[in-house]
């Protein structure tokens, strides 16, 4: 079981959206358990190597010798999202860090895209493996993936708040794209 409070470091796999997500997670952890998280550090990977200032591909604190948690908003069924996670893992290791795991804000519980060679269709409503399940299989047990919320949690929250129109749309999405795992 991954214990977040043992991790001193976070890396954002995307430079635009996740900087605030990682910073928010770090601030909240420091608020909830200041004795464990008072010294969290944060970095992100740039889209390209910078040859001036602090230089390099990593902005912020160097990764070398640190356990690094990747924080992202979602793992989608599209292949580029999973590729970004693998690239972040490769970068952390190349920079001398140790990958502690991945925290995803929302598990959409979304099935992988259809394989037309198998007669599958994205609109068929037939469940297939989830994007997170596929990433877990690719990475194995040495890189745990934790979701803060799932689509099921979102459904419960919408129902509890009486947001029927939003709930109906999410239920339609879930029926169409739900994964088998």
Structural key phrases:
single chain; 38% helix; 181 residues; 6-stranded mixed beta sheet
Low-confidence stretches: 1-18
Q: Radius of gyration, rounded?
A: 18 Å
Looking across the biggest beta sheet, what order are the strands in?
3-2-1-4-5-6
Helix content: 25-40%
Question: What would you call the structural class?
Answer: alpha/beta
Mean of pLDDT: 78
**What does the largest sheet look like?**
6 strands, mixed
Shape field: globular
Tell me the β content.
15-25%
The total count of helices amounts to: 6
How many DSSP E strands?
6
Give the topology string: H per helix, E per strand: EHHEEEHEHEHH
Distance between the termini: 19 Å
In summary, what is this structure?
The protein has 181 residues and is of the alpha/beta class. It is built from six helices and six strands.
Characterize the structure shown:
It is a single chain. The protein has 181 residues and is of the alpha/beta class. 38% of the residues lie in helices and 24% in strands. It is built from 6 helices and 6 strands; from the N terminus they run βααβββαβαβαα. It has a 6-stranded mixed sheet with strand order 3-2-1-4-5-6, with helices on both faces. The chain is globular and about 50 Å long. The N terminus is likely disordered.
Element layout with pairings:
Elements: E1 9-12, H1 18-32, H2 34-37, E2 41-50, E3 56-60, E4 67-74, H3 79-94, E5 98-107, H4 131-139, E6 145-150, H5 151-160, H6 164-177
Parallel strand pairs: 1-2, 1-4, 4-5, 5-6
Antiparallel strand pairs: 2-3
Helix pairs in contact: 5-6
């Amino acid at each position: 079981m991954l214990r977040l409070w043992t991790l001193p470091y976070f890396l954002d796999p995307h430079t635009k959206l996740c900087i605030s997500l990682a910073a928010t997670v770090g601030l909240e952890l420091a608020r909830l358990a200041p004795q464990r998280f008072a010294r969290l550090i944060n970095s992100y990977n740039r889209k390209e190597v910078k040859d001036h200032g602090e230089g390099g591909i990593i902005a912020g604190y160097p990764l070398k010798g640190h356990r690094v948690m990747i924080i992202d908003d979602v793992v989608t069924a599209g292949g580029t999202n999973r590729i970004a996670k693998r690239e972040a893992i490769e970068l952390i290791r190349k920079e001398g860090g140790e990958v502690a795991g991945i925290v995803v804000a929302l598990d959409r519980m979304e099935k992988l895209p259809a394989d037309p060679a198998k007669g599958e269709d994205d609109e068929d409503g037939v469940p297939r493996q989830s994007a997170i399940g596929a990433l877990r299989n690719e990475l194995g047990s040495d890189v745990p993936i934790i979701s803060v919320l799932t689509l099921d949690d979102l459904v419960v929250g919408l129902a509890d708040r009486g947001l029927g129109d939003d709930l109906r749309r999410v239920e339609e999405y879930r029926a169409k794209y739900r994964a088998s795992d």
